[in-house]
Every structure is written in structure tokens, then in C-alpha cells.
Amino acid sequence: MEYACIRREELSMEKRGGKGYTIVDIEALPDGERAELIDGEMFMMATPMTVHQRILVKLILKIGSYIEQNKGNCELLPAPFGVLIKKDDRNYVEPDISVICHGDRLDEKGCHGAPDWVIEIVSPSSRKMNYVRKTKLYQETGVREYWIVDPNKEMVTVYHEKQWDVPVCHSFAERIQAGIYQDLYLEFTEFTK
User: Fold this and answer.
1) What mean pLDDT do residues 60-77 have?
2) 37 forms bridges with which residues in the sheet?
3) What is the DSSP code string of 11-61?
């Protein structure tokens, strides 16, 4: 009987195009499974590859050190860290890196609203999510700066709130300035060694 109820619920989801999921469904996932929600559609997350994690750790160290040395009021939080980006129960993401400069957006559940700076590191399974779905979501919700780091292409695509429709593409060989910090530059050649 329980199976019939679950199956009926799954069929109901299929009829709605799989867009009826909420934060409750994310919280009900088995331990070790992670997913994101965009407008009620659930996207399961794969385990990141080694190159992804190497870049992530180096970015955390570099940006975190910068914030600490400059006694900044922003906070860097890496995934898994929940962002309830639209302040509803149908949108939930876990950016690889979130930099949040408004402490009032943070509580024990995560960030409520858009982070100021988001960095996503592309994996083969996350390409469409990072380049299409999340770009649109981050623009809609007011993320000030969004970086897509693509180790496969050795490129960083940078979106700024004032020129969102005209992203700037940088090669890993370039020195890239962070938009929310005037004197923070990142060089990705040092991150891939």
C-alpha cells in the first residue's frame, strides 16, 4: 500500500513536469545525497572530481585570506552550504563558493536571498546547470557577481550585475580582478598545479 502512495505521488510529479519539489524534499534526501531546486525542479548533484576540489580549496584559501587580512565584513562559505535564493520553498542552491556581505541574510539554515559573489566550478555533469540555469537564476535574484570556472576549457566567465548580458571571458593564464573587491586578483594557473 505504501508503494502505491509513493508511485501515485511520483506520477503526480511527472504530470507537473517534475516541478513540484520543495525544500522539504531536499531535507528528506538520504544522507550523502545532495540536490538543488530551481523553480520546484530538483537536480541531483554528483560527487565532484579531483580537479574541481583542488580549485575549490585554493579559491577558498585565497579569498578567505584576503577577507581576513582586510578585516572585511563579507563571509565566504563553501558548499555544501544552502542558499534559499528566492526566499521561497521552491528554490535552493549550493554554490561552490558564496561570498555574503550582508550578515542579516545568514542563519543556521543558510543564506536567505542572493549572495554578493558566487563562484561555480564546472564539472562534466554540471555544465548546463552552471552555464544556463544558474546564470538565469543568479541574474534574476540580484547576485552582484557570478564566476563560472571551467577547468576543462581553462576559462573563467565573469558576470557583473551592471553588465550581466555581456559576460567577460578570461583564460586561466590571465590575472582576474574580483568585482566586489578592487584589489583582489586571482590567477588560476596557480590553482591548477
Assistant:
1) 90
2) 42, 92
3) HHHHHTTT----HHHHHTSPTT--EEEETTEEEE-PPPPHHHHHHHHHHHH
- pLDDT at 72 (0 to 100): 75
Q: How far is CA 37 from the centre of its chain?
A: 11
Calpha distance 3→89 (Å, rounded)? 26
Q: What's the CATH number for 47-190?
A: 3.90.1570.10
Q: How far is CA 101 from CA 40, 80, 94, 113, 116, in A?
A: 27, 19, 17, 12, 6
Domain map (residue ranges) of the chain = 47-190
Beta strand residue intervals within 96-172, DSSP E: 97-100, 106-107, 110-112, 117-121, 145-150, 155-160, 168-171
CA pair distance 26, 88, nearest whole angstrom: 13
Q: What does residue 159 show for φ and ψ, rounded to 5 degrees?
A: -110, 135
Looking at residue 127, its pLDDT comes to 87
